[in-house]
Design goal:
Blueprint: E1 2-7, E2 29-32, H1 35-40, E3 48-54, E4 61-63, H2 68-78, E5 90-94, H3 100-108, H4 114-121, E6 128-132, H5 135-139, E7 141-148, H6 151-177, H7 182-189
Parallel strand pairs: 4-5
Antiparallel strand pairs: 1-3, 2-6, 3-7, 5-6
Helix pairs in contact: 3-4
């Protein structure tokens, strides 16, 4: 499996213990299987695109879809609770969109059900993230090479990202309007 990670430097031997514990899939080293997605997250500081291959043979892998199990797992991790799947070597699944924190605010206010929150998290294009959680998995992640992205390419991908974010915000707003208690939620958000 070919994977990508954008960073400030070459990461030949990534540290699985370095990542934030309150990220979607808990602590670990996050990668994408999409070259385009990885390039969208480059910036003036993070210009180094690291390319890897991962051999999943013999690893305990958990795969998620955009469903209630995925939502519950992300909710648990994003709120800082103990990772319930810390026995897995690799977690693969959809990236939760960045409205998750806003959605949590609505959930905790009592205005939005878990089903409605999950519905909102399904808005937009789905991208996959791969989280290397164990030393065993890290030993099967082979760094192939790194390339330095040029400023004009980074600018091009940033423009594409801004355009996609604008489309996403419009779709998200429409999805919120379809909820029964839209007026109450709109007052909280705005």
């Amino acid at each position: 499996m070919k994977l990508y990670h954008t960073s400030a430097l070459e990461l030949r031997n990534p540290d699985v213990n370095y990542g934030r514990r309150n990220a979607d899939f808990g602590g670990g080293f996050y990668l994408s299987d999409s070259l385009e997605f990885a390039k969208k997250w480059a910036d003036r500081r993070k210009k180094c695109l690291n390319v890897y291959t991962l051999d999943l043979s013999g690893l305990k892998v958990k795969r998620f879809e955009r469903d209630k199990e995925w939502f519950d797992y992300i909710s648990n991790n994003r709120t800082g609770n103990k990772d319930k799947l810390d026995g897995f070597d690799v977690i693969i699944g959809p990236i939760a969109n960045d409205t998750l924190y806003d959605t949590y605010g609505i959930i905790f206010s009592g205005l939005l059900s878990g089903d409605d929150a999950l519905r909102l998290l399904k808005v937009g294009t789905q991208f996959t993230q791969i989280n290397i959680k164990s030393e065993k998995a890290a030993s099967q992640l082979t760094w192939e090479y790194a390339e330095t992205l040029q400023d004009d390419e980074i600018a091009e991908y940033k423009m594409l990202l801004r355009s996609e974010e604008a489309e996403f915000r419009a779709a998200f707003e429409e999805a919120i309007k379809e909820l029964q208690n839209y007026e109450e939620i709109n007052e909280i958000i705005n």
